[in-house]
Design brief:
There is one protein chain. Helices cover about 55% and strands about 5% of the residues. It contains five helices and two strands; from the N terminus they run E-H-H-H-H-H-E. The mean pLDDT is about 95.
């Protein structure tokens, strides 16, 4: 799964810590999401889309390997 969390966060001038506080997770969780080491729950994915004020599909995109 491709995510645009880092790009969207940096465009807004937010730190990982600030984004983490908005969605109520640790900074380490945000780091793991940004580096692709962790896939979010649907609740966390929806929270991220909400704080970025964009549709979910603008934050996350499935890759062809996600269908296998």
């Amino acid at each position: 799964m491709i995510n645009r969390i880092r790009t969207m966060r940096e465009q807004r001038g937010w730190t990982q810590e600030y984004l983490a506080s908005l969605v109520q997770v640790s900074r380490q969780t945000i780091n793991s999401l940004e580096t692709g080491r962790y896939k979010p729950s649907i609740v966390l994915a929806l929270k991220l889309a909400h704080v970025f004020k964009v549709p979910l599909e603008e934050v996350f995109e499935l890759e062809s390997t996600d269908w296998e």
